Amino acid sequence: MKALVKAKPEVGLWMEQVPVPEIGPDDVLIRIRKTGICGTDIHIWNWDEWAQRTVPVPMVTGHEFAGEIVEIGRDVEDLRIGQRCSGEGHLIGHHSRQVRAGKFHLDPETKGVGVNVPGAFAEYLCLPAFNVVPLPDGIDDEIGAILDPLGNAVHTALSFDLVGEDVLITGAGPIGIMAAAVARHVGARHVVITDVNSDRLALAVQVADVRPVNVLEEDLADVVHELGMKQGFDVGLEMSGNQAALDQMVESLTMGGRIALLGIPPGKSPVDWSRIVFKAITIKGVYGREIFETWYKMIAMLENGLDVRNVITHRFGVDDFREGFETMRGGSSGKVVLDWS
Length: 341
Ligand code: NAD
Ligand code: ZN
Known about the structure:
By secondary structure, the chain is an alpha/beta fold. It is 29% helix and 26% strand. NAD(+) binds at residues 175, 195, 200, 262-264, 286-287.
């Protein structure tokens, strides 16, 4: 089968012929139809320090997908051939205390599809049946292919009660933009999104009813004043990994404000802890999606009017994958989806 492989320890990915994976008794084989390119895939393409430390070569990459089940392991009971699905790309173990307590998303032994085990940028993917998420008819393949990052957005946005709250999102990448749409959907009052890239802020406005702020051009304190917030935002969703953005978030939060951190800073990132203490701010780190609570919630929201379609800005056939990766590496696109069908 065709697959996008990290075949050499250097910049790039290569389309290669590899064997169709053999499934075990608890797995299914999925014929891939659409895949999303993630920031993680760009790290692997770029072969940066994180990728070199993490990804064994050769490795079939990719973890954002939708497809159809074509083969079922002998012990799998509740799935059928022909079932359309996406799936959770974090594979958990069975040993840790967290998993045995039912907190699957906190398993320290988590392995990543397309990072530590062969991935979804391929004609076929082997996935444990446990990780499969069936897709209802109302969710098509390209939305199915971006449920992984939408799940990051949903997990982060639902970390705190947003109903009637003023929400600041720093970073209008695909995930920040989708988090803005979720915040709106669940009933936030004001939703403000910041970035330094005006293309991305323009995209945010196309996807969600948000107030965009280019922090290079506008002072966030003026926006707080303009929107009539007395003290500042109630909740911050950090989605840039940028030090200045986090500082700005802490500054513009109200007393007792809450922050959910999804963005990954490139290295150690100093924080003015006394500001956190005196403002009595609560901070929560967010990793991945809650397995499977986030999936249930996001599918329910999509079936009830949450619309993130416009965050997909580019679609390519998989043979044009290079163009897809170049578009993502440009840093101004929304989600880029590759078609494998
Ligand atoms: P992205 O890189 O596409 O978007 C980040 C955005 O932040 C960019 O548009 C950038 O211009 C903007 N930005 C840079 N400086 C800024 C500043 N000073 N103020 C405001 N915005 C600024 O990333 P993405 O794919 O949308 O993902 C968002 C973040 O979440 C990334 O840091 C990513 O690594 C991280 N992530 C974490 C998890 C997790 O499980 N914790 C999962 C997926 C992604
Ligand atoms: Zn992803």
